[in-house]
Design a protein that fits this description.
Helix content is 48%, strand content 15%. The chain is α/β, with parallel strands linked by helices. The protein is elongated, with a radius of gyration of 32 Å. The chain starts with a helix and ends in an 11-residue tail after the last helix.
Length: 379
């Protein structure tokens, strides 16, 4: 699509079209308009034989073009029917496009949340996309495009009826949610036991580092996804292609899985702590993951049922940051953090082995118990 079409669409989004110098409902067959045409809250009809030397914008109305338009055509919250020649591009938001047998346009067309009916003229490309964000603009545009004279006021919004909260009803729902999360934790521990242990170990040993990294990731990734979404939508406008949508979807799925896996890891940390407190014999990753995740879900549900939503939000946010940071530090549990052991050989006979500081004393004590002849690593 041409650059001026993209600029026109961006102007629509910020509602900067009051500068259009002409606005009417019907352009007669013997009329010639040399300016842009912008219509709010009404249908626009350009009769056969009429000429518009400019762009056309219709808000909250339908457009029927039988005459000649030398600019672009954009319709918000309405359908467009084109039977005459249009030398520019066509963009329809929350509406459908109908192309007659005599329709001719040298540009391209894009239809959001609608259908394309009729034969596309040769040499032009048309694409129909479903974009929920643009569909949600309908209510806002309806308020902007209402007629001021003689307009009918919208009925008042329905009064929201607040039902009294039931403590036991919410706890029953929490119990089902705990059961579901427990099954999810068991499945993750059964399929990825080593990865789950590494992530939970990182969160347990490095809680501050995990929280800081998770905090940064929780803000950086959504901003990146939003930037990619804007770039993808712009590329869609210019009809370069739809390659950005699969990439955006894949990144969103990976981010969601990271958040979920980090949450299950935090439950595993809690489960290990409870297992030690309760002196449980079975402290495997499956049992601790299920115990911790179920307990964590029940506790958060209890806080919500007791109208302690602020505490629930704080606890949930901190745990999500720590879990997400642990996932990032361990690269989805593919490597331990902090490293358990790093061995290096500089080419000589000496081998340098480094342990975390808390294990160095144990290693030294074991080495000192060996005879000097057998202990080649001593000193």
């Amino acid at each position: 699509m041409k650059r001026r079409v993209l600029l026109l669409l961006l102007l629509f989004l910020v509602l900067m079209l009051p500068t259009a110098v002409f606005a009417q409902t019907i352009v007669g067959s013997d009329e010639a308009i040399r300016n842009d045409v912008a219509v709010f809250g009404e249908d626009l009809t350009i009769e056969d034989g009429a000429t518009v030397s400019g762009d056309i914008a219709v808000f909250n109305g339908n457009a029927t073009i039988d005459g000649t338009v030398s600019g672009d055509v954009a319709v918000f919250n309405g359908d467009a029917t084109i039977n005459g020649p249009v030398s520019g591009d066509v963009a329809i938001f929350n509406g459908s496009l109908t192309l007659g047998e005599t329709a001719v346009f040298s540009g391209d067309c894009v239809v959001f949340n609608g259908n394309i009916t009729g034969d596309v003229p040769a040499g032009s490309d048309c694409v129909a996309l479903g974009v929920p964000f643009i569909a949600s603009m309908g209510g806002f545009m309806n308020q902007i495009g209402q007629r001021s004279p003689g307009s009918v006021e919208a009925p008042p919004p329905p009064v929201e009826v607040r039902h009294q909260r039931s403590f036991w009803g919410e706890m029953v729902g929490t119990a089902f949610a705990s059961l579901f999360m427990g099954l999810l934790a068991f499945g993750a521990a059964a399929v990825f036991p080593q990865s789950l242990e590494r992530v939970s170990g990182s969160a347990r040993q490095k809680p501050l580092a995990s929280g800081v990294v998770g905090f940064l990731t929780a803000f950086a990734v959504p901003i990146l996804l939003l930037f990619l979404l804007i770039v993808t939508v712009i590329l869609t406008f210019v009809l370069i292609g739809l390659l950005g949508y699969p990439i955006l979807f894949g990144l969103s799925v990976v981010y969601g899985l990271a958040v979920l896996f980090g949450w299950l890891a935090m439950g595993t940390v809690l489960g290990g702590w409870l297992a030690r407190i309760l002196h449980l014999k079975n402290r495997g990753v499956k049992s601790t993951a299920v115990l911790g995740v179920v307990t964590l879900t029940l506790l958060l549900g209890l806080l919500d049922a007791l109208s302690l939503g602020a505490i629930q939000v704080i606890v949930t946010t901190v745990l999500l940051w720590m879990g997400l940071g642990a996932v990032a530090l361990t690269k989805f549990g593919r490597r331990p953090y902090p490293p358990v052991m790093v061995a290096s050989n500089s080419g000589d006979d000496d081998v340098n082995i480094q342990f975390p500081q808390k294990d160095e004393e144990k290693f030294t004590a074991v080495m000192n118990t060996l005879p000097d002849e057998a202990n080649t690593l001593k000193n």
